């Protein structure tokens, strides 16, 4: 069923702009909005004692930056796919690259609703299967949407997985720097 | 029969057998330690298996037992093939192979008995250190002796990396372990206080750099082109990356000592050099990716290649994460938390173990004279168990580390700490269960691999060693 949906997407006509502004941008709004309400009204639960609740301004700043990071991440990933496709999928266009990012990010963005209940452990448990699904979609969608064969698709999927993991780690590092400079929980540093 | 016309691989076969034994011992100890973190009663009040003793046993068994045996095995194999000559001294190679096993076995056993110098990754006491140094110098004689007697003019890049491994690890080991003995089991280090810490982490991080990175890159640069059946994409890039790697790595050790009593400029230099280190690391990764391009179908035919491909992803990930964690503002959160442990394991399991598994799966049928492995299906199951295991492991420790980091530093309006130590321990428990699950999956994969290799051996004709004739060198490359 999933592969059939991806094939339908591959056969449909759309522009990258239509795909992004007509579909992805609305999904990208889900994690930051959920994060805002979660951080401000419920607070980050570390698993013990009172949750760390952030004030309105801090929550808003973090959510806006989160949104911008997701948008930039979306475009950078699409451009990276286009760049990688010169080796792995010569027939792929920028439109196809946008389609791949849309497919793999859809479950993650929908899963961003878990930010409404910001407990770290809950996030790990809830997001792990979602990331696994996105991982599957990554490998399933590349051969179909980028018009390449299965073996090349596996190589490209691995490379892209490396890129996305690195981007995820960067986000964690940037968050840590932000916390140290006073955006986020009150730390004694 | 003129033996000089054939490669000598018997020591390599023995060392690969030892690699698997150490993998099982070291990783079982790791899984047991992970169990103790969530079920502390598992130490049964037996001193030898308390966390403090079993932890260095695990790290030394995995790094030096598993990793060291794999490195020496592949160095012996590779240097012969890339120099078109038999090992310089097969008897000395056997002494190295057996001596290394005895040295590491005595060392880790002494750690369980409580004899330790308390220096991380250099815990062995001075008699073992001296024995290990003698074996290592013998390894150098075999390796460089083979290089010196080579029949082909160029020195292949794998040998540059193995050479760096041998020279730098000898230097690190000897300098860091300089001590004045006062009994057979204890010695005073010659360095004091902060100086001791600086030398220790100069050793510690370069052990990561030259043992766990340079050595495994030597292995990787031989295995990948052979598996892909094509030359390295850019030989020049591999050599440039080598020298950049060598020059940069040696500076980065003090990033383990951020915000301690060492000079501030030293921390900053270490941080800057750590960030620069991304360049040679990613140049290697790029070279690997481009070498693999065009060898797509090998993924179906070569069961071990998946491991090597994924090892490069984890190499890229951990060589990016490492410099990031060396940034002071990130380190203040991540240091002394599970984030660091997760980072180490993404490198040690995802990069070092994966490239070793891929290489062993590639070499064993050749060394045993078997046409192929006993079961490709088992290799696939091993691959997915290992991949899922390591992902579960590192995701759990990222989350745990971030929670620990925030809780360590979190203060109230009066500037008091919000959380006690035990609060932080309680929060980590669910993540440590996940870590245990991931570790057990990884260990189970190793057991499947050992079974698969055993059945491959059992199905072979047992006429070891398999004799492989040394091919003639192209006249243009002859010495």
Helix/strand-derived category of chain B reads mainly alpha
Mean pLDDT of chain B: 94
Content of β-strand of chain B: under 5%
Structural class of chain A: mainly alpha
- Give the overall silhouette of chain A: elongated
Q: Report how far the terminal alpha carbons of chain B are from each other.
A: 25 Å
Taking the sheet with the most strands of chain B, its summary is:
2 strands, antiparallel
What is the CATH superfamily of the domain at 1-190 in chain B?
Cytochrome c oxidase-like, subunit I domain
Work out the number of β strands of chain B. 2
Short synopsis of the structure:
The complex is a heterodimer of chains A (189) and B (479). Chain A is mostly helical and 189 residues long.
Question: Mind explaining what this structure looks like?
Answer:
The complex is a heterodimer of chains A (189) and B (479). Chain A is mainly α and 189 residues long. Chain A has one domain (2-8, 15-43, 51-180). Chain A is built from six helices and no strands. Chain A has helices at 2-11, 16-42, 56-88, 94-111, 120-145, 150-180. Chain B has 479 residues and is mainly α. Chain B has a domain at 1-190: Cytochrome C Oxidase, Chain A, CATH 1.20.210.10. Helix content of chain B is 72%, strand content 1%. Chain B has 15 helices and two strands. Chain B has helices at residues 10-38, 51-83, 90-112, 126-148, 157-176, 193-228, 235-249, 264-276, 278-292, 298-301, 305-326, 328-334, 338-368, 376-409, 421-459, and strands spanning 179-181, 187-189. In chain B, strands 1-2 form a two-stranded antiparallel ribbon. The chains are: A mainly alpha (189), B mainly alpha (479). Chains A and B meet through helix 5 and helix 6 of A and helix 9, helix 11, helix 12, helix 14 and helix 15 of B.
């Amino acid at each position: 069923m999933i592969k059939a949906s991806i094939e339908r997407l591959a056969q449909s006509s759309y522009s990258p702009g239509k795909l992004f502004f007509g579909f992805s941008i609305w999904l990208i709004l889900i994690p930051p909005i959920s994060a805002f309400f979660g951080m401000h009204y419920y607070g980050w639960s570390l698993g013990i004692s009172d949750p760390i609740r952030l004030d309105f301004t801090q929550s808003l700043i973090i959510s806006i930056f989160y949104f911008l990071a997701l948008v930039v991440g979306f475009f950078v990933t699409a451009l990276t796919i286009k760049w990688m496709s010169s080796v792995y999928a010569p027939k792929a266009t920028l439109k196809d690259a946008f389609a791949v990012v849309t497919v793999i990010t859809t479950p993650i963005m929908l899963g961003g609703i878990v930010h409404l209940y910001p407990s770290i452990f809950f996030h790990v448990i809830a997001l792990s299967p979602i990331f696994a699904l996105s991982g599957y979609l990554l490998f399933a969608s590349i051969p179909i949407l980028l018009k390449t064969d299965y073996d090349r698709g596996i190589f490209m999927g691995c490379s892209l997985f490396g890129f996305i993991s690195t981007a995820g780690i960067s986000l964690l590092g940037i968050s840590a720097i932000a916390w140290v400079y006073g955006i986020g929980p009150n730390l004694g540093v | 029969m003129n033996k000089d016309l054939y490669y000598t691989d018997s020591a390599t076969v023995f060392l690969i057998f030892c690699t698997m034994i150490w993998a099982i011992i070291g990783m079982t100890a790791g899984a047991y330690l992970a169990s103790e973190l969530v079920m502390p009663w598992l130490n049964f009040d037996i001193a030898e298996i308390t966390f403090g003793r079993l932890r260095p046993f695990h790290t030394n068994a995995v790094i030096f037992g598993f990793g060291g045996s794999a490195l020496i095995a592949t160095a012996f194999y590779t240097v012969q093939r890339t120099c078109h000559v038999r090992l310089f001294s097969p008897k000395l190679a056997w002494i190295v192979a057996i001596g290394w096993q005895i040295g590491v076995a005595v060392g880790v056993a002494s750690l369980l008995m409580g004899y330790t110098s308390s220096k991380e990754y250099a815990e062995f006491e001075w008699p073992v250190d001296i024995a290990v140094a003698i074996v290592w110098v013998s390894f150098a004689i075999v390796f460089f002796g083979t290089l010196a007697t080579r029949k082909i003019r160029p020195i292949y890049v794998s040998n540059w990396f193995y050479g760096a491994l041998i020279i730098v690890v000898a230097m690190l080991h000897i300098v860091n372990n300089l001590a004045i003995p006062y009994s057979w089991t204890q010695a005073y280090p010659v360095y004091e206080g902060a100086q001791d810490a600086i030398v220790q982490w100069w050793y510690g991080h370069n052990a990561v750099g030259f043992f766990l990175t340079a050595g495994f890159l030597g292995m990787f640069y031989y295995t990948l082109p052979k598996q892909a059946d094509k030359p390295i994409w850019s030989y020049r890039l591999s050599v440039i990356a080598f020298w950049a790697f060598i020059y940069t790595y040696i500076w980065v050790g003090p990033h383990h000592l951020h915000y301690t009593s060492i000079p501030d400029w030293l921390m900053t230099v270490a941080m800057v050099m750590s960030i620069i280190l991304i360049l040679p690391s990613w140049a290697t990764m790029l070279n690997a990716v481009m070498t693999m391009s065009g060898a797509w179908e090998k993924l179906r035919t070569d069961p071990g290649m998946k491991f090597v491909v994924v090892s490069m992803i984890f190499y890229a990930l951990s060589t990016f994460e490492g410099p990031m964690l060396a940034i002071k503002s990130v380190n203040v959160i991540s240091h002394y938390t599970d984030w660091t442990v997760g980072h180490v394991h993404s490198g040690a399991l995802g990069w070092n173990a994966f490239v070793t598994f891929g290489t062993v799966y590639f070499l064993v049928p050749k060394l045993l004279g078997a046409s192929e492995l006993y079961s490709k299906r088992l290799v696939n199951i091993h691959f997915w168990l290992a991949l899922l295991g390591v992902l579960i492991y590192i995701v759990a420790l990222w989350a745990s580390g971030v929670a620990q980091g925030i809780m360590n530093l979190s203060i109230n309006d009066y500037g008091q700490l919000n959380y006690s130590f035990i609060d932080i321990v309680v929060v980590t428990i669910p993540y440590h269960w996940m870590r245990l699950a991931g570790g057990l999956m990884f260990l189970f994969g190793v057991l499947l691999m050992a079974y698969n290799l055993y059945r491959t051996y059992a199905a072979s004709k047992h006429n070891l060693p398999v004799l492989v004739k040394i091919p003639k060198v192209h006249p243009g490359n002859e010495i």
